[in-house]
Amino acid sequence: MISLYRLASVATVATVAHVAVGQSPAAPRTILAIGAHAGDMELTTGMLLLKQHQLGDRVVFLHLTLGEGGNPKLAPDAYGAQKRREAMAAATLLGAEVIFGPYRDGELPNTDETRRYVADVIRQVKPTLVFTHWRESLHRDHATTSAVVKDAVLLASLEGVRTAHPAHRGVRSVWYAENWEDGEGFRPYIFVDVTGTIPKWREAVSSYEFVRGGISSFAYLDYYSSLATVRGALARKGQAVAFDVDPEGKRIVMSGLP
After folding, report:
1. CATH classification of 2-246, choosing from 3.40.50.10320, 3.40.50.12780, 3.40.50.300, 3.60.20.10?
2. What are 23-44's pLDDT values in tens digits?
């Protein structure tokens, strides 16, 4: 088991090295963004996923829950149906596919069964790169998602773990998205240029009522648009999004000087 974790770390190092020297893996890639609630990954990674779709990559969202408990004016079942429609509309505008998990908002279980479910989705989608939540969060579902995804990537690679789909060992790395609720301990490590994507991204995420301001007072559009400008300034780009990786992946390995 330890050696497999080391192999996963090597894969992370290799991917970060590619990014650092400006190289790209062979396209088309498949990118799987796994969020605790519908809307989480669109807000945090949607600019980059839109760009990658435009470059020819396949993009897939897995929403483990609908986030159906987030509207005090609607019953969870009614708001869940609304968020399902909103998620499908946002995915269409971002050029993505969408998968809905079977779990309830606020009740995402940190169990082996959840890990096997996510591992089977990974095997089904066959991603090259996985995006998800950072491990520390104000929201328990976010932290659970992060822990589950990290383990599920390993489980998906093991031939001895039986699910509905065969093993998939092609995940090069897990990148953790920057989310205002997941800030504790998050350190921006990878910056990716997303210049020019904000107008289309704003249209896509505005499919969600909570983003438009109809439910929450938090200024989602302003926050993430401004954050992209701040990260872009640090990266010497127009706009950028930032990710963290596991500590064991924070090494850059090169065959020589660039």
Report:
1. 3.40.50.10320
2. 455 568 999 999 999 999 999 9
Q: Give the chain as a 3 state SS string.
A: CHHHHHHHHHHHHHHHHHHHCCCCCCCCCEEEEEEEECCHHHHHHHHHHHHHHHCCCEEEEEEEECCCCCCCCCCHHHHHHHHHHHHHHHHHHHCCEEEECCCCCCCCCCCHHHHHHHHHHHHHHCCCEEEEECCCCCCHHHHHHHHHHHHHHHHHHCCCCCCCCCCCCCCCEEEEECCHHHCCCCCCCEEEECCCCHHHHHHHHCCCHHHHCCCCCCCHHHHHHHHHHHHHHHHCCCCEEEEECCHHHCCCCCCCCC
pLDDT in tens, 186-232: 999 999 999 999 999 999 999 999 999 989 899 999 999 999 999 99
Give the global pTM: 0.89
The letter for the amino acid at 121 is V
Tokens representing residue 159 in the block: 């031939």
